[in-house]
Write a structure and sequence with these properties.
- The protein is of the alpha/beta class.
- The protein has a single domain, classed as Spore Coat Polysaccharide Biosynthesis Protein SpsA, Chain A (Alpha-Beta Complex).
- Helices cover 35% and strands 17% of the residues.
- The chain contains twelve helices and eleven strands.
- The chain has a five-stranded mixed beta sheet. The protein has a three-stranded mixed beta sheet with strand order 5-11-10.
- β10, α11 and β11 form a beta-alpha-beta unit.
- α7 runs parallel beside α10 (238-246).
- The radius of gyration is 19 Å and the shape is globular.
C-alpha cells in the first residue's frame, strides 16, 4: 500500500441558513427560500451535522492531515479555529467574481481544487455526511494512488425515469438532471454514457484531476457560473467521476446501502435501517420533504451517536 504520510485532506461545504445576514444576502439575489428542492429550507438548514461529522472524522479517520471548511463569510460558533488542522475558506478565496454571491453547491464544487494549500489527495464531504466505522487511506485510494470511486449501478433507472416523464408527466428531480448533464458531456467527449449514480457520501479526488476536467469542460462550466441556486443546466461534480472512469484513472466499487446509506431524515424507519445495515458511511439527507421536527430528531440522534467533544470544538 502506498504510504500517504499524512497527505490526505478533507473539504466540507457548510452554511448556516438561520443567519439573518446570510438570509438578507440571499433574499436580495434570489428571494426567500421555498419548498422547491433547489431553494428549500432543507438546502440551507444547519442541524449541527458538521460538528458531528467532524467528530466522526476524529474518531474514525484521525490520519486526516487538514480539514478545510468552505463557507460564505460564516464560521460555526463552536469551531476552534486555533486548531492547526482547521482552515475556514471563504467563497471569495476560490470562486471567480462573476459567480458571487453563490448559493449553488454545484457551482462551488468546481472550484474546491483551488483551495490554497490543499493536498493532491483530498476527500470531499457535505456537512451531513458521516463515518460510522474506522477507515484508512486505502478506503479511498488504491496502491497506485488513484481514487476509489463508489457508485450505485442503476441499470433500469433511465427507463424508469423516462416512463415517469412520458406517462405521468413527472419531471426529473434537479439532482438527477444535473448528474445526467455530466454524463452526457462525458459521453460527447469520450463516447460512452456512464449510467451510474454517485453513492452520495464522502468521495475521494485528485486535485490534478479536478484541474484537468475543469480545463476540458471550461466553456460548459463557465456557462453555469451565474446560477445562484441550482438550475437544470448545472454540471454536477460527478463529471470528475465519469472522466476518471473514461480515462481509467480510478478504481470502481459498486456499493449497496449496507456500505453507504443515504438517510432521509423525514423517514423515521431509516433509523432502524441504519442500525440494521451498520454501514461504513451514512448521510443525514435534509430536503423539501423534511420539517423542523425531523431536524430536531437528527440533532438528538447525532448527539447520542457521537457524544464526545472533538478537539476541533471550543
Amino acid at each position: 500500500m502506498k504510504n500517504f504520510n499524512n497527505e490526505i485532506d478533507i473539504v466540507y461545504l457548510w452554511v448556516d441558513g438561520s443567519d439573518p445576514v446570510w438570509q438578507a444576502k440571499r433574499n436580495i439575489i434570489i428571494g426567500k427560500s421555498n419548498e422547491k428542492s433547489t431553494n428549500c429550507k432543507g438546502r440551507y438548514a444547519n442541524n449541527d451535522e458538521l460538528k458531528y461529522s467532524m467528530r466522526s472524522i476524529e474518531k474514525y479517520a484521525p490520519w486526516i492531515r487538514k480539514i478545510f471548511i468552505v463557507t460564505d463569510n460564516q464560521i460555526p460558533e463552536w469551531l476552534d479555529q486555533s486548531n492547526p488542522k482547521i482552515k475556514v475558506i471563504d467563497h471569495t478565496e476560490i470562486l471567480p467574481p462573476e459567480a458571487l454571491p453563490c448559493f449553488n453547491s454545484s457551482v462551488i464544487e468546481h472550484f474546491l481544487y483551488k483551495i490554497p494549500g490543499l493536498s493532491e489527495h483530498f476527500l470531499f464531504a457535505n456537512d451531513d455526511m458521516l463515518l460510522n466505522k474506522p477507515v484508512s487511506p486505502d478506503t479511498f485510494y488504491a496502491e497506485d494512488g488513484l481514487p476509489i470511486i463508489r457508485i450505485i449501478h442503476s441499470r433500469l433507472r433511465d427507463w424508469f425515469l423516462l416512463f415517469k416523464q412520458k406517462f405521468f408527466r413527472i419531471p426529473l428531480k434537479n439532482y438527477v438532471q444535473i448528474i445526467r448533464n455530466s454524463a452526457k458531456l462525458v459521453e460527447n467527449k469520450f463516447g460512452t454514457y456512464y449510467n451510474v449514480k454517485p453513492h452520495h457520501n464522502i468521495d475521494a479526488y485528485l486535485k490534478s484531476d479536478c484541474k484537468h476536467v475543469e480545463l476540458i469542460f471550461k466553456d460548459e462550466i463557465d456557462k453555469t457560473l451565474s446560477n445562484r441556486v441550482r438550475q437544470a443546466n448545472d454540471i454536477q461534480r460527478s463529471i470528475y467521476t465519469f472522466v476518471a472512469i473514461a480515462e481509467k484513472r480510478c478504481h470502481l466499487i459498486e456499493v449497496t446501502q449496507k456500505t453507504s446509506f443515504r438517510f432521509h431524515i423525514q423517514n423515521i424507519k431509516h433509523y432502524d435501517k441504519l442500525k440494521r445495515y451498520n454501514p461504513v458511511f451514512f448521510c443525514m439527507n435534509d430536503s423539501e420533504y423534511a420539517n423542523d421536527e425531523d431536524r430536531k430528531r437528527v440533532q438528538v440522534f447525532l448527539s447520542k451517536r457521537f457524544p464526545e467533544k472533538s478537539k476541533f470544538e471550543k
